Queue: 4 jobs
Job 1
Amino acid sequence: MAQIKSFVFNPFSENTYVLYDETGEAVIIDPGCYEQREKDALADFIEQNNLKPVKLLNTHAHIDHVLGNAFVKRKYGIDLYLHESDLPVLKAVAVLAPNYGMAAYEEAEVDHFLEAGQTITFGNTELEVRFVPGHAPGHVAFVNHADRFVIGGDVLFRGSIGRTDFPLSDFETLARSIRTQFYTLPDDYTVYPGHMGTTTIGQEKKTNPFIRL
């Protein structure tokens, strides 16, 4: 059974996730850790639970979700996975970071490109990759069907959706992604978003003021 540990990092209050199971293998998703204390919090949890990170996954490459990519790659010697369509977004972070007072941001190279329908494995756990553009052009979500949850990034929030006023963002594309890739999941699936607390597919289908069935 997959377990989930979440951290809230950086001034954007971004959710970083560590997924792990009984084998001790783990994946780190969207490491937003920038300050040393944030990096220490992530590393301490991994060490204290005797975990072995084996993959680094990005749902998308906006600045708040990738600040810790280089740190994680270097510390654990693991590969970075991102959808190819989000490469321009990732490349832009090095230019944007100083404007947010984050001049110490380090770039990290992508090792593997994620694709829709791909299965990511670690330990005894499988994650289905779903392509969900709109907030970002190469946004993906990771679905665990065995334990009925979604690591959704900035697509669907409790009572809200990802912003579409960024460059390369588009509301109609995001709405289509939510309707076809999120709302087609069973109602009891838990959504772990890139910001704020969890919700469920069923709750958002009924009450989300932006995208409702």
Job 2
Amino acid sequence: MVAATVRDVTDVCPLVKAAGLVKRFGPVEAVRGIDVEVRRGEAFGFLGPNGAGKSSTMRMIGCVSPRSGGELTVLGMDPDTDGARIRARLGVVPQEDNLDTELTVRQNLQVYGRYFGLSRAHLRAKAAELLEFAQLTDRADDEVDPLSGGMKRRLTIARSLVNDPDLLLLDEPTTGLDPQARHLLWDRLFRLKQSGVTLIITTHYMDEAEQLCDRLVVMNEGRIAAEGSPAELISRYSTREVLELRFPPGEQPPVEPFMDGMAERVEALPDRLLFYTADGEATLAAAHGKGLRPVSTLVRRSTLEDVFLHLTGRSLVE
């Protein structure tokens, strides 16, 4: 019987599996015993406020930061002993673009590919393919500096694909981009997932997570607060709809009179009340019946952002 190769194993096993994973920095425990599985071909997200442990987890998966405790396998291998072999099959998109501004767009792809031992002939063809994928063919021989932020981000993603990775790690891939650039990048990432590339994404954009992620975890203070698909998390931790009632400054009523029976949960913000409810229109009618006269009303569906804020709070974490 022929022994199974590592690639054969990862075809049926999770590409990433963590059990009781811990990361410490001196006395600070940044990741506190989390369990995670990422399946082949899916887009998996890490959400959480600053300091939640997302980046520390990504660095351990990317084999650039050793774990302090627990178990971790990536592509069927142990990062402690097989880090170089794992990194050869990873694509990494860092939070900040780190392109070589002294090279052209095309040269950034070709030179980076040489680090993986790829031939010049292969890289010429691969660079042309990736330039088309990133919609940068007409800028191939331009220097990097004059490119827009969206173009630089697309080039960074294209560069991460030069070695045909099995697993692509993206750390806040669209931060700082305008809406058009974000949507173009979402399209590129969706195409990658459709082609079989497994994605692990950290993001602060809840709509991005809803658009891209098949499953995700919400991290808070180094632990996993919730796990599931976006739809599952919304169903589990929020309501079908949210009614927003806005009031003039200083005229917002207290929450307490409306806590009984009007909604599953009521939240007061400086300029509005949020009613989490199964039927926003019925709750609005009940609010009018209790004498509430807001300056504006909005009935909307619950979103992943509602879940995120419910699980992690609204206080700013530095």
Job 3
Amino acid sequence: MPYTPSRQDFDHYMTPNYAPQSVIPVRGEGSRLWDQQGREYIDFAGGIAVNSLGHCHPVLVDALKTQGETLWHLSNVYTNEPALKLAKSLVERTFADKVYLCSSGGEANEAALKLARRYAVDHFGEKKDKIISFAQSFHGRTLFTVSVGGQPKYSQGFGPVPGGILHAEYNDLESVRRLMGDDTCAIMVEPMQGEGGLIPATPEFLQGLRALCDEHDALLVFDEVQTGVGRCGTFFAHEHYGVTPDILTSAKSLGGGFPVGAMLTTDKVAASFAFGTHGSTYGGNALASAVALAAIEFIDTPEVLQGIAQRHDLFRKRLEEINERFGVFQEIRGMGLLIGAQMTPAYQDRAKDILPLAIEEGVMALVAGPNVLRLAPSLVIPEADILEGMARLERAIERLVNA
């Protein structure tokens, strides 16, 4: 008999740092998934804002097949054509002059933080090492990035953490000003906090951070791992604000489901990553680069980006209608197709209780912390799938209320 893995096998063979749902999806097409029993689900989770074009999009499949029959991996002893094409395309679309390719958002943020400190040492000396980030921020799971992230639960229990890291309050410029000094080398910020509850920055906040960095010779680092590559309705979310960073990180939607990350920066800052200062074995992998190039060229078009705004309005309208019936949401917020619904005090910390009910109704969703329901579907999800998925979500919320 052929071996068919079960959910119990996860507990038997895998480390217990995850607690996956009971169903095991085995096939996906567009914004729909099917499990081992052939049951269908509408996907509003998007692999945690990763599957930017849904599942098995023909443009990405074609790029993967074509490159897969040509060249997979070389290492960074050599360069390759897909990596160079991807870097060129990212530079042409952004403020950046240079690109560093890696395999994940955590790696991209690790590179950004190391580069910021290296740049400060090169230009101002070793005493300029302080990094300011924000309470409830999330920047990855390496020891450096969980330390910079503003959620202590992720860094506790792993011994001494890197020093020189300070945390201010998001959207509170005065809290940053109190920590800022000539020893500050960088501010790292999400244009919209993701894991912290889908809280968009105010324009005044990001503009003020830019001014503070300029005043103190510090670098402004935008973590756009979750908000970038169309997710918020522009190619990168900072375009909404008219604020340009010195360093920007990207992953998730960048590869449409294939593991890839990128750090973008200017010529002046990039010079501090001299030969041998940093690296990634799989970074710039030909397969990943080919898929990412296909993804960004498809996403960065008026048709897709304008469609994101229309889909956002439909999701928001349906969430508001659900809330009129059941009164479970205190606030609905977000940008583009990264949408959060904060629970009311009566349903405090119960967003997570919606997920298993939603699965039973045939729709996949997420949370952003215990108190915010998060939706991060495909950027090209059909309207019919939105309406059907929201009807299923409404049934799940009705069950929550009536339990």
Job 4
Amino acid sequence: MTESGSIADLGPLNRAREQRAWYFTDWAVSAFQTTVAGVLFAPYLISIAENAVGEHGRIHVLGLSIAPGSLPSYVITLSTVLSAVLYPLIGAMADRTSRKPDLLAGFAGVGALATALLFFLDGENWLYGSLVFIVANLCGGAAVVMADSILPQISTESERDRVSSVGWAYGYAGGGLLLAVNFAMVSLHDSLGMSTELAVRLSMLSAGLWWAAWMVIPWLRIERRAPLDVEQVEGSLLTRSFGQLWATLKDLRNYPVALSFLVAYLFFNDGIQTVIASASTFGTKELGFAEGTVLGTYLLVQFVAMFGAVGFGRAAHRYGAKRVVLAGIVGWMAIVTVALVVPADRLVPFLLMGVAIGVVLGGTQALARSYFSLFIPRGKEAEYFSLYHAMDRGTSWFGTLTFGLVYQLTDSYRPAIFALIAFFVLGGLLLLRVDTERGIRDAGNARPAVI
């Protein structure tokens, strides 16, 4: 009760209501991230390109000769470069408006529509599929930037690890649930009276519909808040956004702890992303498992990661996010070390590796998000999270380049995946140097009970 008028403080109840709505942002977008970007799009696009030029033919784009099997990598790389350029500008624009939930829903809506349009990808039209996927992927990342920037607005500093972790768990649950349904549809396509191609196209359509439908909940239930501490710049919204972005980049030197964390995050997150991206190749090419077995293990990882994210959130409440993230990094070091000796064609050790990845996967990333939010000055949430995602995507090729070079030198995926331990060691050492107390104080945020 408050002292004046004995009116109950409804703040915690209102935050809890918004937090429950916010969880569905992860639940919604994960359908695209798992079913489309994670599993189905790349092999299907390769088959479409092969239909156009043959398995050993070449696609010619802007003077480049591209093998069909390399096309998804080029598409994702182009999307990554564009996102690194666009996201900071989008973040600056978002912090100048009270309509972040509307921007969240807008980007999600366009991304969901583009995802649904992949249903029409058939025959030989690889260019159509490539362009539509780039739009969906860019909008998916922009929606994540908006969702992350809302996190500090709907939670106190002490609540943030829990809220971020539960949101991540929702993402794994939602994405895994739809992926399981689509996995069954693709696997049983003959029994359902459809071709493999139609089953894949229907799966991508379902991801777009899922994404759009569930995003209605956060759009309706998250409050519109007036912007805070925006840079006073004259001109159009676009001009003012560039001015705000430039001011933020200059202002970043006043928050050295936030910058230090971003550098640490780039290393250990690049290691995480490369392990996930190369896991299916490692399972099929190095360990000799069928693609169905690897996909089943992917589903297992999704399921375990849901509980891992919640468990890491609870551990952070007791020990602090930084310590728990460091423990997760040590776990990743152990995983890539075990990859050196895990036996081929032995299912149980492979499944145990999947369980271990699931335990540390969601929790490490969820807590990195909430931990970074402590170093963001109020009113600049979207800008700082756009830098967080832009720097992540802009350097995400370091790990894959290392993986590829080591494989080329050794002709084995075991040392290639073990080489990623360098990213975890460097990221962990840099994270150890992050001064949490100073970062919170510099940003003007409240100190959580446990850091």
